[in-house]
Amino acid sequence: MTDLLYRADPYLQEAPARVTGHTPEGGIVLDRSLFYPTGGGQPGDSGWLVWDGGRLAIATTVKAEGGVALVPAEPLPLPPVGAEVRQRLDWTRRYRHMRVHTALHLLSVVIPLPVTGGQVGADRGRLDFDMPEPPDDVPALEAALNALIERDLKVTESWITDAELAANPGLVKTLSVMPPVGQGRVRLIRIGAGEDQVDLQPCGGTHVARTAEIGRVEIDKIEKKGRMNRRVSLTLAD
Ligand SMILES: [Zn+2]
What we know:
Layout: E1 3-4, H1 5-8, E2 14-22, E3 28-30, E4 32-33, E5 47-51, E6 54-64, E7 67-72, E8 84-89, H2 91-110, E9 115-120, E10 124-130, H3 138-150, E11 155-161, H4 162-167, E12 185-191, E13 199-202, E14 217-225, E15 229-236
Parallel strand pairs: 1-4
Antiparallel strand pairs: 2-3, 2-8, 3-7, 5-6, 5-8, 6-7, 9-10, 10-15, 11-12, 12-13, 14-15
Helix pairs in contact: 2-3
């Protein structure tokens, strides 16, 4: 299985790896990956692979048998199985995903309603809430969200067993995307600690280390999506 470098250190931008396989769809499987695969509403990473005799732009990354597969942006020859490669992330794009993704965790703090879906982008992100009535003061929500960001809270991870998660169903905010159970343990993302803890939920995505890295955000629109649901979108202001 691919060693998930993005999970151990989401700030790592470059690393060596070895090609362990090609997928039938033309993807490249590495023994260790900086590239996050599409999942949990967060897009797959893009970037570059360089090796002795070749260079390939990577358009996105997907989950695959044996780990994750990097999807080439152009139909060029792939590095052969066994090749030693240098992998480099499109860090500008990935870091914006990390900022938007972490901002969505905080959005679920200022709107404490069940989440039914979400999507992360490089400029904006959104969450769908089980929200029959629109919020009456959007500027106040935006101010509360930016106040949490400015507190520069630490974002940390910990792991619990499937059994501990089953005993604490209140940890799961996302109704449509259950955390991946069945591997024996589940990753929790905590924002703030001790008395300053504001959020704790299962998540497999990539996050910034401190909330101030998100920068100021704007809540741009709230759309009605069906009788019970509303979609809340936010944008990075810088
Ligand atoms: Zn997350």
